[in-house]
Amino acid sequence: MKRINIGIFGRVNSGKSTLMNLLTQHETSIVDNTPGTTADVKTTVMEIHELGPVKIFDTAGIDEIGVLGEKKKIKSFNALKRSDIVLLVLNSNNEDYLNGNFSTEAEIVELAKKRGKELFIIVNSFKDSPSHLTDLLNKVNPNDLFPVLELELIEKINYKQLIDFIKSNSKLQQIKTPLLPTMDPNKIVFLNIPIDEESPEGRFLRPQMMIEEYLVRRYVPTFAYRMNLGKARSIKSEEVAEEKKRFDEFIAHLNKDNKLQLLITDSQAMDIVSKWTEGSNFMVTTFSIVMINFLSRGNLEMFVNGIKAFQELKPGDKVLIAEGCNHDRKGEDIGTVQIPRKMDELFGKGTIQVDHYFGRVFAEYDKLKEYKLVIHCGGCMLDQQAIAARIEDLIESGVSFTNYGVLLSYFEGKDALNKVIEPYGLKI
Ligand SMILES: Nc1nc2c(ncn2[C@@H]2O[C@H](COP(=O)(O)OP(=O)(O)O)[C@@H](O)[C@H]2O)c(=O)[nH]1
Ligand code: SF4
Ligand SMILES: [Mg+2]
Questions:
Q1: Is 237 or 330 the better-scoring residue by pLDDT?
Q2: 323 lines ligand 2 (CB under 6 A)
Q3: Contact 360/387 with Cβ under 8 angstroms?
Q4: How many domains does the chain have?
Q5: Domain of residue 238, residue span
Q6: In the sheet that 222-225 helps form, which strands lie side by side, from edge to edge?
Q7: For ligand 1, is residue 13 a contact (CB within 6 Å)?
Q8: Alpha-carbon distance 294 to 424, whole Å?
Q9: Residues 159, 192: one domain?
């Protein structure tokens, strides 16, 4: 979760894969002078002693021509969007530079600047630095905006120099977003985990695990509870009463002397929880609200703002439901079943066109503009950099966005949404 992403970019045969291998200290990427050897983004996860946990992307040269070259370029740029540190590799011997062609470098610099990346230039000197080097750097790096290191990447001995260079120039303090607002170690947090048919046996889901660990580590006691949603939503009133009694009794017991401070529920149980906790003196939120706030580095508000666009949807508008992975879809799946059904109910059947997209990055970035609203999944399989890249894509495209946790709570009414965002000091 708290890795630094380092992306390596540049022209074909500039030595990007050689740089990847120097960083990882072994033959992670195939190095060859055949242009296009690195066809796809190669990702390596490792611990660099001096830098901590890192993820490194070795990418294809963005100057390859043709349809395939264009596809590789899109992939490389998607990796750039997810990078914290961008290493731009220059092959000092490339003859194109003599002809004044710096378009490849300019494109990388432009995107890195636009996305606020830390950009470092690595000049691969291939033994001798050429006489035109100063000239070259003046073109790529006017005003010395970016730190430059010149070294021969193929020499394994240069490892230390490379790491020192990255370390000394990176201002990236690990910006730590707390998972939850500050909690009192003398009070309890109630975790409502209904466990549906999609939940894997033998473990909790990642958000549940993370939150449980986070609280216990900070001496905050938790109480894990499985609500029986079948009974709670039953048409038989005695089953509902029985389930509610069990819930109420535990709440009353835990909340003696106002010892209960927060209840975190699976957002799918919000229909029940919002009713059963009405007027309570403890706060309520959902696992997905906690996660999207954390993954977006404290930017829950942006997703809450998307509710306005949801309220203003008109017939003929298009909405994109975007999921971060292609998980197994069973039964009452939120993205493909629950949300489209609810939208038909609210706006009339088929009134709003609902499209779906599954994948780590928005492959069809240009199409985002067509949508009035993007409804994003919980993003539990994505890291903070991937969420940041997606948020920036959405902002750049001018599309409003919200997410499952926020929307499912809103489906239970404005008060229900306000309740779950209150722990973050927000209100619609
Ligand atoms: N002599 C020398 N050759 C290098 C150096 N760096 C890369 N090469 C060679 O240049 C070619 C392209 O390198 P590679 O890392 O695959 O480039 P990429 O296309 O940017 O990934 C390979 O044949 C490498 O062995 C270097 O520092 N010195
Ligand atoms: S990343 Fe999104 S689609 Fe994939 S499991 Fe998590 S919430 Fe669901
Ligand atoms: Mg390569």
A1: 237
A2: yes
A3: no
A4: 3
A5: 188-290
A6: 222-225, 188-192, 260-265, 283-286
A7: yes
A8: 11
A9: no
